[in-house]
TrEMBL record:
It comes from Serpentinimonas raichei. The keyword Heme does not apply. The active site is at H94 (electrophile), E165 (proton acceptor). This is Triosephosphate isomerase. SUPFAM superfamilies: Triosephosphate isomerase (TIM) (SSF51351). Involved in the gluconeogenesis. Catalyzes stereospecifically the conversion of dihydroxyacetone phosphate (DHAP) to D-glyceraldehyde-3-phosphate (G3P). The lineage of its organism: Bacteria, Pseudomonadati, Pseudomonadota, Betaproteobacteria, Burkholderiales. Keywords: Cytoplasm, Gluconeogenesis, Glycolysis, Isomerase. CDD domains: TIM (cd00311).
Amino acid sequence: MRKKLIVGNWKMNGSQAANAELLAALKAGFNPAQSELALCAPAPYLLQLQAALQGSGIDWGAQDVSAHEGGAYTGEVSAAMLRDCGSRYVIVGHSERRQYHGESDDLVALKAQRALAAGLTPIVCVGETLPDREAGRTEFVVKRQLSAVIHAVGHCCSEIVVAYEPVWAIGTGLSASAEQAQAVHAVLRAQLRAATAQAERNRILYGGSMNAANAAELLRQPDIDGGLIGGASLKAASFLSIAAASPVVALSN
Ligand SMILES: O=C[C@H](O)COP(=O)(O)O
């Protein structure tokens, strides 16, 4: 049996005071029998998460990592530093990084490699824009994005988490339907199976306007192993409702 993995991506939100309140509510409400939980916070707050969450069963991590190992790279945060703050996860290739910071497939792949080398689990985001979808290019785009990472990480491929996040669904209130999401997840699952004999270890999360109302249906899909939640992770009640909606399932592959 495997529990769904529900990851909150706080994006550029939070303050020490607001975080403390949210973390206390999450710790009080988290039921480890329902799901696995993790929070990806802005880097300045990782030590606060470490202090608050150690021993709680809730994991934490960052939203980006440098492609460099260390040294004279002003403003960058290395994978080793994230580990040093107790992080388990790091998001790489979020569409907001690809869109606003020009991150290429190759750069994302290098970041995933750096994360794995430092003992972090990269959450590799892939997803098509609305014009991609309308042009029938969804499968081509997500496979190209994942392929770069698979190629770079080689035999460590089964250690990554993949997050399918259709760009048009992020922060819009317009989630992909369960059928649309499942169809893309099945494509990604097949790609992982072709790359590694241990693809059953890979989790594929859905992200894009997942909330308390639509989570149960999305998380019931056979290839949706959890969620990457933006807006709804900023309130304890909505984030915990998503965790509570997560079915515990038999391994599908
Ligand atoms: O990383 C999270 C995603 O970008 C989803 O954000 P959202 O739940 O606010 O749509």
